[in-house]
Amino acid sequence: MAFHDKQFCELTQLQYDAASKTFWGELYSFPVFLQLIPRRNAMLFRLIADAPFSEDPAVRKEKLEQWQMAHSGISALNYKERCLSCVMSLASKDSEKAAANLLSALTALAADLQWKGCCMACGSPFGYKPYLLDGGGVTVCAGCKEHLEQKMQESLNDHAMIKPNIPGVVLGAVLGAAALFLLTFFVLKLSFLSFLTSYAGVFLTLYLIKKCGRKLTKPAVVFGMALCLGVGLAAPVLDYAGIITDFNKENCVAAMEQIENIDRLRSLSESMSDAEWAAAQNAAGKHFTKAQMDDMYEQAHMILSHQSFITTLQDMPEILQMDVYSEVKVELIKCFLIIGIAIIGSAVIVATPMLKESAGIHSLRELGL
């Protein structure tokens, strides 16, 4: 569903930061931020305000719960650390107008509760400006900005001192890759592929590397993703090796009969001249060249000689060259492409923010500059 940012800005008088997909500005003296989440058809709402000191937190919580129940399209409404936040679901029709109405209702709620717009860090009602801290909307005054930047630099220095635990990195990568293999193999057994299994496996691998290895680094990510890619591609190979083995067992008798028939045809063809052989084929209504008989014999022999999973797995490259397994080869290639793209794509999506977090990297950007 398309959300028209220009139309929404006209309705609310907010400004739009395209890089972060964030609407920002002041409504009724309250600094507000709305981050658009297109894939969820929702917006993350944040209003920065200080509640009166005399306000009872329990009473406030009850009022917020009652207000949320009375307004559709609002979920996870919460006030914490001078920030009123919630998730605004976008309507299927006139989503811009519906979102503007919800925004107006939320700011009216803050006004009714006698909150005051302020610096999110210290609560000062003066001199604050809108910023994006790690992509989230905040308000910071000049004094708090200097302190915040100092804390960000300290975090960067502290994280730089942390050295990764190599055995822990290896353990985390192996455990995560094993989980990815089990997930992928399980969905293949259900006869379908899922991008979610690759995403979940990659996320779990990077999380375990960070947890067991104390720190996530680029070499650790490369190592972990190489393992994930290896086991992710191994899962369909094992799955299709089992399918081929079952096929071979089901066609064992037919393959034996085919070998016996071809042996008889070969013995007959050796005792006949070319003209006699051609006449015999015409009489039977079947025509086989020697090359065709050789191919049929080889395929039947391949079926008979691969009745166990291990032998099938060992000879998969040779097996997939046979015409009788052409459909399996196509499906296996399709699996390779889907799993490979899913794992690499998931790694790019998941690793970037996790690397920043592990390195202690934070970003603070003033809006409107």
What features would you highlight for this structure?
369 residues, alpha+beta, 2 domains, seven-stranded antiparallel sheet, three-stranded antiparallel sheet, 10 strands
> Uncertain runs with pLDDT below 50, 5 residues or more?
none
Termini separation:
30 Å
Q: By helix and strand content, what is the structural category?
A: alpha+beta
| Total domain count | 2
- Largest beta-sheet details: 7 strands, antiparallel
DSSP strand count: 10
Backbone shape = elongated
Q: What portion of residues belong to β-strands?
A: 15-25%
The DSSP helix count reads 13
How many whole angstroms does the radius of gyration measure? 33 Å
H/E series, N to C?
HEEEEHEEHEEEHHHHHHHHHHE
Helix content: 55-70%
Averaging pLDDT over every residue, what do you get?
Answer: 88
How would you characterize this protein structure?
With 369 residues, this protein is of the alpha+beta class. The chain has helices spanning 5-12, 57-70, 95-112, 142-161, 166-189, 195-213, 218-250, 252-271, 274-284, 290-305, 309-314, 316-319, 326-359, and strands at 15-17, 22-27, 30-37, 42-50, 74-80, 83-89, 116-117, 128-133, 136-141, 364-366. The protein folds into 2 domains: 5-156, Yope Regulator, Chain: A (2-Layer Sandwich), CATH 3.30.1460; 163-361, no CATH class. Helix 1 (5-12) runs parallel beside helix 3 (95-112) and helix 7 (218-250) runs antiparallel to helix 13. The protein contains 13 helices and 10 strands. The radius of gyration is 33 Å and the shape is elongated. The strands form 2 sheets. Strands 1, 2, 3, 4, 5, 6 and 7 form a 7-stranded antiparallel sheet that branches. A 3-stranded antiparallel sheet has the order 9-8-10, covered by helices on one side.
